[in-house]
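tool_call: predict_structure(chain=1)
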Amino acid sequence: MLVVTTEHVMGHRVTEVKGQVFGVVVRSRGLAGNIMAGLRSIVGGEITEYTQLLEEARRHAVDRMVKNAHQMGANAVVMMRFDSAEMGQTMSEIVAYGTAVILEKLPG
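tool_result:
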């Protein structure tokens, strides 16, 4: 399934809008990860434990959004965006959302 952050896809036209789709993931780093991240924050630099957590959460959020779009009968998601929030002090919520559509390739 094509997922784009743009409203239009070159060489295609939207023939039907299926509606809003989203995928939500809430993740928590375990105690050991929080301790390692805390130690790294003292020294400074990238906290790879959290980077990996957020990258994985984004992938899962997109996968869930695509699954929802597929269930709606769409073949693409346009205007895809991410949103995130912290829940408590140890959890992160990642949301992937966009508009599920039917795209048709233009002749030529």
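agent: The mean pLDDT is 88. Proceeding to next step.
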